[in-house]
Amino acid sequence: MRYFLKSMEHSIWPSSAVHLIPVSTAKNGASSKSRKRIMPDPVTEPPVTDPVYEALLYCNIPSVAERSMEGHAPHHFKLVSVHVFIRHGDRYPLYVIPKTKRPEIDCTLVANRKPYHPKLEAFVSHMSKGSGASFESPLNSLPLYPNHPLCEMGELTQTGVVQHLQNGQLLRDIYLKKHKLLPNDWSADQLYLETTGKSRTLQSGLALLYGFLPDFDWKKIYFRHQPSALFCSGSCYCPVRNQYLEKEQRRQYLLRLKNSQLEKTYGEMAKIVDVPTKQLRAANPIDSMLCHLCHNVSFPCTRNGCVDMEHFKVIKTHQIEDERERREKKLYLGYSLLGAHPILNQTIGRMQRATEGRKEELFALYSAHDVTLSPVLSALGLSEARFPRFAARLIFELWQDREKPNEHSVRILYNGVDVTFHTSFCQDHHKRSPKPMCPLENLVRFVKRDMFVALGGSSTNYYDACHREGF
């Protein structure tokens, strides 16, 4: 979901956009050795980008157990650490369509209601015991699971909880049962947990953690609070990043002005709900419409008519076109390189400590937003990756070669698909090496140097790149 910038850390998309990337990643279960480009599947993908198909992928409605490529490596490689970035699960809209009834979605957790997960009841029971847990303020004032009969704005739904229980169980089967990443008597300092101050991100993180470590000891859990959606901690002030953002938003605005069909559609919808077109657009109707679609609830009607699927398709089709132009103009890439640098720098620091044999923070979890994951994907060069769906996961794996213990490698996976060799820092490496992963030093060099080279100019560090004159 894309929203206008409320503060320089909290959002990067205009209010009218959902922003789904139209090129598909490879399907789950693809060969771990495949190094083909991540292109649409000719069997299951529509021949032309279908806005409704894209929206349903974005909903990520839980169904059959997912096949994934996490944890795939030659037998002589040892898994050293795992770094997981998630988008929160399915949520209630942040906006309402003016003068229409809110979609009636129940945000209590009910075991016999779809979508169901076998750990759902146990999750609720365990969360009810967490009042004495340790959360950095202001997280300690948030509810640990959704519990309103009519969802509050932005509240995680049962679908969102189930999505992350599934994610957690999948990662448990791979990283704990197969690779023994953590010992049975794991300690608090072996986990690193961080979330923004929204109930939907804290609850999503807890659902994944419960799937990963069922019935965990609350005394071992400490969630840190991150005030910035970019997870930039103490490095958030970056004037040049904001200049890229302003130029990108201007580009989006001009593209919208050129789309007469889009303006006509907003005008039609505004007449249906009897408000000025400008007010309708500002209410971000697509946010509410997606909730109707994901939960199979009819679009709203008034005495003047009904908002319908054709309106939805026009807005979605514009967003797909916007995405194509966004990749071509590269302004968002500049924003992303600076926006993603702090969290990537923190991640490689944690990896480097693990290569020294340190046993702290072997499993890191960042529970975040689409506006967290999207800049990271863009900065890594993953231009063909879909925009973060509900409960999207981006994972960095660190591996040690047992035959050459001083050599460490990384794998990067997005929603279970190995995208390591689609990253800008490793797309050429596999031409010279048969190993199915990338040297850690490639990622370190990218974060410490190449991210700044990609921005142009003479900057060689984050501070200088953020304060470059004459941009």
TrEMBL record:
One of its GO terms (molecular function) is phosphatase activity. Keywords: Glycoprotein, Golgi apparatus, Hydrolase, Membrane, Signal-anchor, Transmembrane, Transmembrane helix. It catalyses: 3-O-[beta-D-GlcA-(1->3)-beta-D-Gal-(1->3)-beta-D-Gal-(1->4)-beta-D-2-O-P-Xyl]-L-seryl-[protein] + H2O = 3-O-(beta-D-GlcA-(1->3)-beta-D-Gal-(1->3)-beta-D-Gal-(1->4)-beta-D-Xyl)-L-seryl-[protein] + phosphate. It is a single-pass type II membrane protein. Its main location: Golgi. It is found in: Golgi apparatus membrane. Pfam families: His_Phos_2. It comes from the Eukaryota. GO terms for biological process: chondroitin sulfate proteoglycan biosynthetic process; glycosaminoglycan biosynthetic process. One of its GO terms (cellular component) is Golgi membrane. Responsible for the 2-O-dephosphorylation of xylose in the glycosaminoglycan-protein linkage region of proteoglycans thereby regulating the amount of mature glycosaminoglycan (GAG) chains. Sulfated glycosaminoglycans (GAGs), including heparan sulfate and chondroitin sulfate, are synthesized on the so-called common GAG-protein linkage region (GlcUAbeta1-3Galbeta1-3Galbeta1-4Xylbeta1-O-Ser) of core proteins, which is formed by the stepwise addition of monosaccharide residues by the respective specific glycosyltransferases. Belongs to the histidine acid phosphatase family. Interacts with B3GAT3; the interaction increases the 2-phosphoxylose phosphatase activity of PXYLP1 during completion of linkage region formation in a B3GAT3-mediated manner. This is 2-phosphoxylose phosphatase 1. It comes from Mandrillus leucophaeus.
